[in-house]
Design goal:
Chain lengths: ~375, ~250, ~70
């Protein structure tokens, strides 16, 4: 059993008529339910829910505060390498672009880490492009070992790996995995991923489950919103999260809600995800999985982020650079443009003004994790 | 309305499971079965008493699914032994695992219950474990091969109702096994409430057997379980909250 | 022959040679009896062929009311 089976079923649904079938009563029922089921989730993502965003927001806010408290966890991404063998039509790191590629040495990793740690952050997400030659799992492991000296939590966002490789990284102190499917809709997935190993849809789809099997403490998934009809994509993401959460209750399954941003290339999103739509998606995720974390990146502008902190978000990035070595080195190429350039200190200040406690360090691994291989 | 409950390859149209203990006379049992509409009935296994002429099985119509329990077992091994003895009677392969060490409250021992479930499920039994409503235990029972889980609503025979409601609610939402509330239910309204919450069924004995009129009570429970189930399927109507005059959280979307 | 049946030691006449003979006695007849012979489950199809020996421990159980 894999989530692929659910995905296959979802792709056969007659969405054209399905979304319009939901009524205000269905939305109200979902709002009242103690546990929102698949039907309820669809009602919350449907056009019928649009007039109920405030009611959804009230309940989402209540659930979030009840489960997480008046806090916001902060983290920052750290780009290790931008070598990439894939051609994805929407990404600046795509292999078709000719720009000087970079990969941090372990000394440079330490320097970046020092700069970031000086801001107070203790949770870090490390990223690479996809290149098994230039940034293999062993390289990520070596970097993680350096970073464990500076951070209490190290998560990865790299190309899909095998269960054994994940377990090895877990053994090196990596506690979280972030991996976006990008697009759940299979046909669109194939269109957008023109070349490279990333074309293999299932390898990516099953990777979060491999992460759960390898024992990561948290696994974060997401669809790159805008690539395909957002209601379907949000539905698939939420069901994927529930599939994982039901099957691996020991792992914290979280959502990311990346909305497509302009980048180096000419790609135009297929589905217009307005602020309203983004809010509807966040609220539906929260009502569907009340205990799951939801991360908000600096892809979103500061003013919007300031509002979203009350709608179910539990984690925010701060002090962000999407360039390799962007915190302590010069002259990288950003993966995407960020819209919120505020420093960690500024974000923390904004949160406090809004009555939320910024959390720089949520946990620490006291004993060396057990390597499963 | 077609709404069968499938357990161990058997299709049940009634979601009320009943017991055979504590009746003033066993000849009531066939009529209780008929009035309750039940299709699954529990029995216990004991040494034969040479003085007694009673034979409980003779009161149970053959269309019933017999659910022998392992009452008296204090360890997994004892439960396994009782289950194997019961199966050798040739009346089916269902077993309600009941392992109880605590003689004061008669609360089940989940750890021994999980061990017994593993062994018996591997031997082809349809295993319905009686358990304390604990999520980790329920997930382990599922992994061990249980066909359903049977959490207690309150201590056996106490007629105290759904004291463990919150925990049972969690089991219902987080395990995809049928959850059958066993023990504690004293009134039809409590059975209906369990069913409204999404329980797959309820198992009762004392509440019917010790009623002043067990036959009428059997009928009352039959209707309560069915009403609760229908309410669950129908989806409870929304309790309207007062609408907010402004939109403090989403006003920025304009 | 001396047998311990359900914990009670008793002398049985020589004609009581098999499990089937034992179960035919009036105190057990007419009940759906399950037999454990010296701690081992005895198959019901073989009651007639299962010989009893001096000192055997026999457990006879059956279904009773229970919840």
């Amino acid at each position: 059993m894999s989530f692929y089976e659910t995905m296959t079923r979802l792709e056969q649904l007659p969405y054209g008529m399905l979304w319009n079938r939901y009524t205000a009563e269905d939305v109200k029922r979902a709002l009242r339910a103690e546990r929102v089921d698949e039907e309820g989730l669809m009602a919350l993502l449907s056009p019928a829910a649009e007039p109920y965003l405030e009611e959804m927001a009230q309940k989402a806010q209540r659930l979030t505060r009840a489960h997480f408290g008046h806090v916001m966890q902060l983290f920052t991404p750290m780009y290790l390498a931008d070598y990439c063998v894939n051609h994805c039509t929407y990404c600046s790191f795509s292999s078709i672009y000719d720009f000087p590629r970079k990969k941090l040495t372990l000394e440079e990793v330490a320097r970046e880490a020092e700069t970031i740690a000086a801001t107070g952050l203790r949770h870090i997400l490390i990223l690479t492009g996809e290149s098994r030659m230039d940034s293999p799992a062993s390289y990520v492991r070596d970097c993680a070992e350096v970073l464990r000296g500076y951070f209490s939590s190290v998560s990865i966002e790299v190309n899909p790996l095998s269960t054994e490789e994940y377990a090895e990284l877990r053994g090196a102190g990596v506690d979280g995995l972030t991996l976006y499917q990008e697009v759940y809709h299979q046909e669109t997935y194939r269109e957008l991923h023109v070349k490279g190993p990333k074309r293999v849809y299932r390898n990516r789809l099953d990777a979060p489950e491999r992460g759960c099997l390898a024992g990561f403490r948290s696994v974060n998934i997401g669809a790159l919103l805008g690539m395909y009809e957002w209601r379907q994509e949000a539905l698939a993401t939420a069901l994927h999260a529930r599939y994982l959460q039901d099957k691996y209750p020991e792992c914290e399954i979280g959502f990311s809600i990346p909305r497509f941003r302009p980048y180096l290339g000419e790609f135009n999103p297929a589905s217009d995800v307005t602020d309203r739509a983004l809010v509807q998606i966040i609220l539906a995720y929260r009502l569907f999985l009340p205990r799951s974390g939801i991360s908000l990146s600096t892809r979103e502008p500061a003013a919007l982020r300031d509002h979203l902190v009350h709608l179910g978000i539990t984690k925010m990035s701060a002090g962000v650079s999407t360039e390799v070595g962007g915190h302590s080195l010069e002259g990288g190429t950003p993966q995407f443009e960020i819209s919120d350039n505020r420093s960690v200190e500024e974000i923390a200040g904004m949160l406090r003004l809004q009555g939320l406690e910024p959390v720089f360090k949520d946990w620490d691994i006291l004993s060396e994790p057990v390597c499963l291989t | 309305m077609q709404d069968p409950l499938m357990i161990g390859g058997v299709t049940l149209t009634s979601r009320l499971f009943i017991g055979t203990g504590k009746y003033s006379r066993n000849t009531l049992i066939p009529e209780v079965i008929a009035r309750s509409g039940s299709q699954v009935i529990t029995v216990a296994l004991r040494r034969v008493d040479p003085q007694s002429k009673e034979n409980i099985v003779s009161h149970i119509p053959s269309h019933m699914t017999l659910l022998p329990n392992t009452s008296g077992a204090r360890t997994a091994e004892e439960a396994v032994r009782i289950a194997r003895l019961a199966r050798s009677a040739g009346l089916g392969n269902w077993v309600k695992i009941e392992v109880i060490n605590d003689q004061k409250y008669l609360l089940p021992d989940n750890i021994e219950t999980i061990r017994a479930t593993e062994i018996l499920a591997a031997e082809g039994f349809v295993v319905l474990p009686y358990m304390s409503p604990d999520l980790s235990a329920a997930l382990r029972l599922k992994a061990a091969g249980a066909a359903a889980v049977m959490p207690l609503g309150a201590p056996i025979g106490s007629n105290r109702g759904l004291q463990t409601k919150e925990l049972i609610r969690i089991l219902i939402s987080e395990t995809d096994l049928p959850v059958i509330v066993d023990a504690g239910i004293g009134r039809p309204s409590e059975a209906a409430e369990a069913m409204e919450m999404g329980a797959a069924g309820v198992l009762l004995n004392t509440a019917i057997a010790t009623a002043k009129d067990p036959l009428l009570m059997a009928e009352a429970f039959c209707e309560a379980v069915s009403a609760g189930r229908k309410a669950y399927l129908a989806g409870l109507g929304p309790v309207e909250e007062t609408a907010a005059a402004s939109s403090p959280l989403t006003g920025f979307l304009a | 022959m001396n047998l311990t049946v359900n914990g009670t030691a008793q002398r049985y006449e020589e004609s009581c040679r098999t499990l089937a003979d034992l179960l035919a006695r009036p105190e057990w007849a007419g009940k759906l009896v399950i037999v454990e012979l010296n701690g081992e489950l005895a198959g019901r199809e073989a009651y007639g062929d299962t010989l009893l020996n001096e000192g055997d421990r026999v457990e006879l159980v059956h279904f009773v009311g229970g919840g």
